[in-house]
Amino acid sequence: MRASALSVPAKIVEGGSRESLAHYSRLLNISLGSWKEISYSIHFAERMRLLSREGATHILAIEGELAGGLTRLIQSLKNLPD
């Protein structure tokens, strides 16, 4: 989970330094995949009783907002010329 959590902002920063919109979009999609890994890990931790239901719900609400913002950014880039 730590690796995924570090990967998200690292890939966004790396993508922002690329000259090509296609490369930036690709790295944003990789970041979104890391978000999905984090979400899975939270659900897994809850099922294994390593995290309370309330804790998981709280974290997933925040995760959902952040993933939604990343998804909207990816969608907005699809409308731009490369």
Outline the secondary-structure elements.
Blueprint (H helix, E strand, L loop, with lengths): L1 H15 L4 H27 L5 H26 L4
Helix pairs in contact: 1-2, 2-3
How would you sum up the major sheet?
A: none
CATH superfamily: 23S rRNA-intervening sequence
Name the helix and strand elements from N-terminus to C-terminus, one letter apiece.
Answer: HHH
CATH class: Mainly Alpha
**Structural class per helix/strand content?**
mainly alpha
By DSSP, the count of extended strands is 0
Rounded average pLDDT = 89
Q: Which percent range describes the beta-strand content?
A: under 5%
CATH architecture: Up-down Bundle
CATH topology: de novo design (two linked rop proteins)
Helix content: over 70%
Which residue ranges are poorly predicted, with pLDDT under 50 across at least 5 consecutive positions? none
Q: Span from first to last CA?
A: 33 Å
Q: Using only CA atoms, what is the Rg?
A: 14 Å
The shape, in one word, is elongated
Count of discrete domains: 1
Number of H/I helices: 3
